């Protein structure tokens, strides 16, 4: 009988007996879980090594900047700023949002946009739209928060609607 014959590949013995020792289901699950735990530990170790490498790179960069007095303490260049803005809308219009743009050096540029869906129930129609980013600004740049809906209802409370930046 050739080696590829179906009867040669069929198990010998009673139905359900595949010719080997039968493992308990609990043992199979335990082995499967132990392999999963081992792979998880390896993945965590690799992530930890990657984070340590990134942390070392950041520490070297910080040390270099501290020794040189930083890029802005020497009067070099224009500052990098962390810019945050938020608008708290109280409107039942389907979507609301805003954009922040910069105008300067002969050009206008949109820095970021934010769009939010609004609830249709007037009692619940509150939603804030927050954006943040780091930008290189030049002296004389003009920042604008633009809300494209002329009749948008919004809250002008300091904790609800604001524009701020921090020099980095």
Automatic annotation (TrEMBL):
This protein's source sits in the domain of life called: Eukaryota
Q: Which GO terms describe its cellular component?
A: extracellular space; membrane
Transmembrane segments in this chain: where? 29-50
Locations listed in the record: Secreted
Q: Which keywords does this chain's UniProt record carry?
A: Cytokine, Disulfide bond, Glycoprotein, Membrane, Secreted, Transmembrane, Transmembrane helix
Keyword Cytoplasm part of the UniProt annotation:
no
Q: Which GO terms describe its molecular function?
A: cytokine activity; tumor necrosis factor receptor binding
Q: What is its main location?
A: secreted
Q: Which GO terms describe its biological process?
A: immune response; positive regulation of B cell proliferation; positive regulation of isotype switching to IgA isotypes
Cross-referenced Pfam families: TNF (PF00229)
Q: Which SUPFAM superfamilies match?
A: TNF-like
Q: Which residues form the THD domain?
A: 1-168
Xref: PANTHER family: PROTEIN EIGER, TUMOR NECROSIS FACTOR LIGAND SUPERFAMILY MEMBER 13
Which protein family is it in? Answer: Belongs to the tumor necrosis factor family.
Which protein is depicted? TNF superfamily member 13
Species annotation: Phyllostomus discolor (pale spear-nosed bat)
């Amino acid at each position: 009988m050739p080696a590829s014959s179906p009867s040669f590949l069929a198990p010998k013995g009673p139905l359900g007996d595949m010719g080997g020792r039968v493992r308990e289901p609990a043992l199979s699950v335990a082995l499967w879980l132990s392999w999963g735990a081992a792979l998880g530990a390896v993945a965590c170790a690799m992530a930890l090594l990657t984070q340590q490498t990134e942390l070392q790179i950041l520490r070297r960069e910080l040390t270099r900047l501290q020794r040189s007095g930083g890029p802005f303490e020497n009067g070099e260049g224009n500052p990098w700023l962390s810019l945050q803005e938020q608008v708290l809308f109280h409107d039942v219009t389907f979507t609301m949002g805003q954009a922040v743009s910069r105008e300067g050096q002969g050009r206008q540029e949109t820095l970021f946009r934010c769009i939010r869906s609004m609830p249709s129930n007037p009692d619940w129609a509150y939603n804030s739209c927050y954006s943040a980013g780091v930008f290189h600004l030049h002296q004389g740049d003009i920042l604008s928060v633009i809300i494209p809906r002329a009749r948008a209802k919004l809250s002008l409370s300091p904790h609800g609607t604001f524009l701020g930046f921090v020099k980095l």
